[in-house]
Amino acid sequence: MQKRRILLGFIIVLAIVYIGLQIFKLQEIADYVRPIIMPLLVLSYFLFKKDRSSYFFYFLVFYSIAELSGFFYYLAQYSYFMNDLLYYGGNILYITAYVLLILEIFKSMNIKKIFNRFKTYILILAALDIYSIILVSDIAVKSDLLNEGFDYLIEIVYNTTIMLLLTITLINYISRHTKKAMNLLIGALCIVFSEVMQVAYFYVSEQNALSVAYSALLVLAFLFFYIQSGLSYSDSETYETETVEKLEV
Predict the structure, then answer these.
(1) What's phi and psi for 144, nearest 5 deg?
(2) Residue spans of alpha helices (H) in the chain
(3) Region of residue 102 (left: phi > 0; alpha: psi -120 to 50; beta: else)
(4) Long-range contacts of range 7-11, CB-CB < 8 Å, 24 or more positions apart?
């Protein structure tokens, strides 16, 4: 237990240092601190959690591999090959990670029952997702930073995956109303808002505040994701019936 606390404490300190470096505009140092955080989180999960074959574990693994590529970020300035490898490879790894997280949530959901009960809400959320994907992707396209059709495809697939994650966690929460579902939803919300901050930073205005907000929200997202991994859906299932009744009125 003490080893776990020490490791988690060290991860928290690194996260705070990372955000602090960005606040003081020490981005070059921050870029070498960030790739260390996720692999340590994976190590913590591997050592102290029992379910090492879950989709959630592999979500952390794929995300940490994508983060480790940050060590080679500055090499991309001198090599088109390295730049393409980091951009395409990194985005594919992130997309794969989020898909695995979606599968982790999906596996415990009764899809048929949920769709029949919340059909209207799901259709409304789907419409909002499509609008958000078009809006965010359009900002990236109009920035002239994307070079070819495959860049646009990556951008659209990435944004679609993020919005799908938010939708699934929201539906999961309104159908369960548990602490675990709530932590997943808050984590997904932090991911979505962090991505909005990142899009604004890369494609609209390179203001340091946007970069700091993006990083802080990302750290919070993984805090909530890690917390939910120690919970089960039965921890606060008592509110499910009340929530469903309110939604069906």
Answers:
(1) 65, 15
(2) 2-23, 27-48, 55-68, 80-84, 90-106, 111-117, 119-142, 149-176, 179-203, 208-228, 240-248
(3) alpha
(4) 7/40, 7/43, 7/44, 7/47, 8/44, 10/40, 11/37, 11/40, 11/41, 11/44
Which tokens is 56 given?
């959630």
Between 30-34, 83-87, 162-166, the lowest mean confidence (pLDDT) is in 83-87
> What is the structure's pLDDT at 18?
96
The DSSP code for 49 is -
Give per-residue pLDDT as tens, 148-203.
778 889 999 999 999 999 999 999 999 888 999 999 999 999 999 999 999 888 88
Alpha carbon distance 193, 106 (integer Å): 22
Find how far residue 143's CA is from the centre of its chain.
24
Q: Cα separation of 31 and 205, whole Å?
A: 19
The full set of domain ranges for the chain reads 1-107, 114-249
Q: Dihedral of the CA atoms 211, 66, 31, 186 (nearest 10)? A: 40
